[in-house]
Every structure is written in C-alpha cells, then in structure tokens.
Amino acid sequence: MKVCVLTLGCKVNKYESDSLLNIFKQKGWEVSDILEKADAYVINTCAVTSEAEKKSRQMIARCKKLNPDAKIYICGCAAQNNPSQFLGKAELIKGVAGKNKIALLSSGVQIDDVPKQYQQEEFALQSRTRAYIKVQDGCNNFCSYCIIPYLRGRSRSRDLNSILEEVKSLDDSIKEIVLTGINLSDFRIDGKLGLLPLLQELDKFNLRMRLSSMEEVIADEEFIKGLSKLKNFCPHFHLSLQSGSDSVLKRMNRRYTTCEFEKTCRLISKYFPSASITTDVIVGFPEESEEEFDQTQQFIKKIAFAGLHIFPYSHREGTVASRKKDLDFSVKKMRADKLKKLDEKLRCDFIKQNKFGRVLIEEVVNGKSYGFTENYIKCEIDAICNVGDIVDVNITGGNKKLAFANLA
Description:
Blueprint: E1 2-7, H1 11-26, E2 30-32, E3 40-45, H2 50-66, E4 71-76, H3 77-81, E5 92-94, E6 108-110, E7 130-137, H4 148-152, E8 156-157, H5 160-169, E9 176-181, E10 188-189, E11 192-193, H6 195-202, E12 208-211, H7 221-228, E13 236-238, H8 246-252, H9 258-271, E14 276-283, H10 290-303, E15 307-312, H11 329-353, E16 356-365, E17 368-372, E18 378-381, E19 390-398, E20 403-407
Parallel strand pairs: 1-2, 1-3, 3-4, 4-5, 5-6, 7-9, 9-12, 13-14, 14-15, 18-20
Antiparallel strand pairs: 7-8, 10-11, 16-17, 16-19, 17-18, 19-20
Helix pairs in contact: 7-9
C-alpha cells in the first residue's frame, strides 16, 4: 500500500507532514511526499490566504484524477478554519491538532481543541541533505490581517531535550538543519526567550544551522552579536516587514516602526556583512493609499533586501482587518506586479555583491550541481559534485533565480 502526504503552506506544515510520513513508514506503507499515484492521500492544508484554501481544495481533484478509488484524508489549517468545504470529498477531515492520528485511517470530521501545551510529534522523516526541525507552535501576536493565531492557538515551545534528541538522531547525510515555528522568535526555555540559547546548544553539532524566519522584536544587539559567535550559523535572516509604511504597520497591529526595523537590519549588516535579509510584504491592505504604498517601495529600496515574498492582501473572516473595506483586486495586482519587478532587481543586485560562497550540494542534474550558499544564494555549479558535500565556489554571474559558479 502506498500513501502520499502532500503539503501546502509553511515549513511547520512540512515538518508535520514529514512526521506523518515517518509514522506510515513504520507501519509498513510505501510513502511519498510528491503527487503521484497512490492508494491513499493525506493533504495537509493551509489557510493563510483564500488562495491557499482554494489550492487545498484543488489538490483533492488532482489526487482523484490519479486514482479515483484512492482514500483522501484532510488535515491542517484550512480544515480547522472551515471543515465544511471538504465535506463529501474526504474520508477524514481533521484540524491542526493530533495530525498524527490520521495514520489510524479513521473517518468523519475530527476537529479537536488546539492544545495549550506543545504537542510532541513523531520525529520527522528526513531524506534530504537539509532537515527541518519544528521547535515552536502557535502565535500570540494577533496581527489584524492574520487568522493563524485563531487556528493554531497560543504560542507554545517544544522541550529542549526533545529537540536535541531529534538532532542527535539525524542521519549522517543531513548536513544542515532549519529551525521552524509559527512564531519562531517566541521560542522559550523555562518561560524565557530561548532562541539564542537553543542555537548555542545546537552549535555543538557539526551541522549548518538556519532560522526559517524571525521577528524584528527579538533582534537586539545582544542577540545578533550572540549569533555572530556561532561557528555553524548561516547568515540568512528572513524578517517579516509586511509594510514599509508606519501608518499601515499600525493598522496591521505590527509591533515596530520602520525606523526600528531599519535599525535591526543595520545591526545584522554590522555583524554579518555578507548576510542576506529577505522579507514578506503584503500589498493592498485595507485603506492602503498610493502614498502608503510608495512609502513601502521606497523603504524596500532603502533596505536593499536580498529578496521579497509578495502577497496581495487576502480577506480572512474573523480578523480585525476583515471589518475594513477591501481594495479592488486590480489595485492589489498592480501593486504586487510593481514589487515583483523590484524583487527581480534586488535578487540580481544581491547576487552581484557576492563573489564567493560555500555551497551545500543538494542535487546533480545534467552535469551541473545545485545547492545553496550559507547566505542562501542558490548556485548552479559547472561541475559534478557529490550530494551532501560542502564546496567552495567562485560566483561568476547570475539572474533573478540563481547564481552561476565554478569550483574554487
């Protein structure tokens, strides 16, 4: 019997899907994380935007097209938010809590209460050179546009010993770990902010380390300076900006100003001169004026991010922002298109600034090797290397998608 566990959305979802894959594998199933013919499909859904929910529904049809007789099992944020959208289409509809119980292959609608304490999962199935390690769940921020705190619950942190145990268990083929959480910056040890102490413990392993994302509020000089002393930390910082307009940030209930955000970016550059700083930006937030959008554009240029993740504002029922009048889709699309062009330039500019790198080889295709530098530039290397090796390269050029490199 074969099961495909398919993931939409964030890296936390990916970790939870990999945990399910491990359980199915232990039960004797043939497992896959890509869309292919199978006897059963588990779809781990996302609800961060209405488009994400739409893709979650569409995935059911794609699975049924491959095998009309396959059993479909639904879990995740879209199911938690609105289970009725999957009625009659799946054997089981489960929310965000107790996803591992899907392996029991029961039926019905099971939307459990979100736990108040961190819910320990089976260790994730790791089969690549990079492993995601979930250390935190939930969020207390309640940004006015975001539904996730209502679906994932309040912030809760994984036990330190459990994290260290999973990292110790990783296969020798794993050369890099990525810490992930819904609000990773709020990871705590004994009630105190503990992301830096966690990284200091993990630095004892001979593994490159990354953060999937980070909030500006945690990144004071003590924190950044502490990161700079770690021998295995990779200097890629994904800081969620969302808007470069202070008035929009206030309406979003983001807890910083553009001045504070800029200060954080300058601190990162002080201790990590070659760091890449990427960000998320929401365009077309309710009542966003042309002037406010222009402020965002100018701020993005001022910071000179290494790349942008651009999201047109998505109305999420139940959030504070949903009470405001939505902008026309055409306005949001136009603004998103402008930022996409800016993003292409920023990515090219950042690659040009880098002449050297250390690349973890992840795949070899048609005589060329591919992987990422420590500061997260994807490289195409004109040589055949061994997957899992870390090689020094000279960067010779590039485009908006990747850099071209030769072995040093």
